[in-house]
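Hey,
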Amino acid sequence: MIILLAGVVILASINALESKEKKKNSVIMSFGFSRATCLKLNIIEWLVTAFITAIGAILGTYIAGQLIYQSQFSLNYNPNFIWLALTLLMILSLTTALGVWASRSSLKSSIRQLISNT
């Protein structure tokens, strides 16, 4: 359920900021960069966003696990760091793929559209 809600939030934020995203891509292309460069910048942007949220989620889970294990069981919480790394990679790839897929229409903007919209 949380993954579904996170997907809805990502899609809603992309739809809300689509016009600004088109303008940003148009400005980048006006400097002579290609659509492939805009796509790479978009991927980097989504990777940074996904990394920040994933690190926050994993650290929050680690701290909560540590506190619960200590207070309830008087044990140390020792997570499997391979699973944590795999979770990080999964969050990064899924969030980036969803973000790039949803914002693909903003990559279809042109410099002419930017001039006509301002």
